[in-house]
Structures are given as structure tokens and as C-alpha cells.
Write a structure and sequence with these properties.
Pfam families: Abhydrolase_1 (PF00561)
Transmembrane segments: 38-59
Number of domains: 1
CATH class: Alpha Beta
Protein name: Monoacylglycerol lipase ABHD12-like
Number of strands: 8
Keywords: Membrane, Transmembrane, Transmembrane helix
CATH topology: Rossmann fold
Shape: globular
Number of helices: 13
Bound molecules: 2-acetamido-2-deoxy-beta-D-glucopyranose
GO molecular function, one term: phosphatidylcholine lysophospholipase activity
Strand order of the largest sheet: 1-2-4-3-5-6-7-8
Amino acid sequence: MKRRAGKRDSFYPGVADVKPENRAQRAEGKSQRWMRSVLLSIFVLVLVPFSLTVLPELIQLLVYTHRIRVPFFVDLSRPSDLSLNHTMNMYLTSEEGISLGVWHTVPESQWKEAQGKDLAWYQNALNDRSPVFIYLHGNMGTRAATHRVGVAKVLSALGYHVLVPDYRGFGDSTGEPTEAGLTTDALYLFNWVKAHSGNSLVIIWGQSLGTGVATNTAVKLVEQGVVCDGVILEATFSSTRQPVTVHPFSWYYWTLPGTGYFFPEPWAENKAVFPSEENLKKMKSPILFLHSEDDPLTPIRFAQQMYEVAVSTQNAERVKLVSFDSSLGYLHNGLYKDPHLPDIIKRFVMSL
Ligand SMILES: *[C@@H]1O[C@H](CO)[C@@H](O)[C@H](O)[C@H]1NC(C)=O
């Protein structure tokens, strides 16, 4: 008997000889763990989707994740802390009661001249005939996020102006994010830039969720008879209304298998649709798609699909897709690090 018990217990690695009281303890621990898994499953499978259906606010939180103001402990009024020493922090009112925090970085060649200059100098500098980029960032975090600062530095080094807003509800901007609100903010900034930049090229660069804002904005402009000079779509997706398994912003769900069945389709109700694919069919601007092949959040097939739509709407000369090899490891946000990026951007700007 003793031998058999010993044999059975040796199934548990490292437990050769188990005394009766230990066994009882283990059984108790096991049932506690079991209870905990059951409770967690109930929470995940029932309560989370239920809350998502009844609480649009929670959906808003999940889509925009704007409350997570990463990086923490950055003073958004001091971009020079992030070695953006030729950058002005300013606030624009995109709509009554909505104040947007915006960074304006001038071309790097002007960094010395820019020291200690005021808002008026920066606004005046916009009129220096250098191309102007409006960078529309993705969800989560602020305009101070590393990859956003990274893009601003690349563009500034190329001799361009860069304006990076935090949409309503993000960073130190007031209000709450909605799809219409984000589009209004971007459109306002575009018109503001146009009013200050003379005949300079103005290019919109959207990243991730920001590509949805970018295409929305471009279409609004077309409806007003304005064609934006160029649009860059980095890490794009076709629409946020995807089945949950391919939904680009539901990574919190991807890790919880089986939850797709219970997941409602909240995006329509909350008007967070971002119909980029439909938008492309109405757009008239030259477009450059940038995408990493190893992007885990918005797989590259989204960009390929979007590229096809854009080419069939305009033509292959006005639309380009540049992808970055998986071996480079850029994932969703990292392609600003690519040593060829400046050349790629420059060529696109020259073609406009
Ligand atoms: C300011 O920024 C420019 C451009 O990035 C850099 O070359 C320069 O060293 C910086 N100067 C100071 C004092 O930090």
C-alpha cells in the first residue's frame, strides 16, 4: 500500500512522500483555486460584456484608452524636457468649451533661433514655406509618448513643421472623446494651420486609431471642396467595426479565449466606427501607407486591403504602401526608428 501511494504521489514532481495533513491542505488549496477560477470566469464571461452593453462610457474608455496618460510624470507644457527644444506648447479651442493641447515643432535647422521665442514667433514661422505635418496619434497616452516624439523629430530633422495635438479628453485637453469630436478637433487644427501657413504643403499623418481620424478629416475636407495635399496612414485598419476576433483595439479580449461569443457590437451605438475603408473611396489626396509586417495589433493585411481600395479609387501612382520587415521588430509603434524612413517621407513629399 505504501509503495502504491508513493508511486501515485511521484506524479507530482518534487513531491515524493506526502503526509496526510499535507494532502488535506492541498485539497483545500485546490478547491479555493477552483472557486477563484469560477468567479473570475463569471466576471469575465458575463459581467464584462454586460457592462460593455450597458455602459457606453466603458466602451469609450476601452476604444480610446485616453485615461491612461502615458508617459506619466511628463509636464506637457514643457516639451523641451523631451529634447524638443524648438517646440511650442499651445492651446487651441476647437469648439466651445474644448481646449486642445498642441505641440508645434519647427524645422530642426531653426532650433537655435527658436530658443526663448513666443507663440507669435512660432505662428509666424509656420509661414516659411516649409511643408507642415499634422500628426494625429493613436489611442492611449499623450502627445509625449516616445514614438510620437520620435516621429516629430524625424519630420523636424527633414526640415518640416510638425503639429501634434492631443484630442479632446487626451493629455491635458478638455472634454471627452467621441469619433465626431476627434474629427472636429483634427479639422479645426487643419484649418488653423492653413490660416497660418500660406501656400505651404499641409500633410496629415495618422497613426493607428489616428488613421481613422485622418481619413474622416480628409473626407470632411473633400465635402468642403478641399483636397489635403497628402495623407500618411501608419499602422492603419479598415474600420473599428470588425468581428471581435480581428478587432484591432480589443487586445484585452484576445487574451481571454471564448469571450467573443458574448461580446456585443458596441461600436455602432457609441458611434466609434472610423470607416476608413469607405472613406478611402471618397478621398482624393495622394496616400502613403506605412506598416510593419510584425504589427500584432493591426495586422499588415489591413494595410494591403486598404491599399487595394485606394488604388482602385485613385490610381497606383498616387498611392504607395511601404512595409517594414518583421525582422526589424517595429511592431505597432516602432517604425519611426527606421533609418530609411526619412528618405521615404522625403520622396513622398517631393512627389506632392
Ligand atoms: C536642441 O535640439 C537640437 C535638435 O534636436 C539639437 O541638435 C541640440 O543639441 C539641442 N540643444 C540643446 C541645448 O539641447
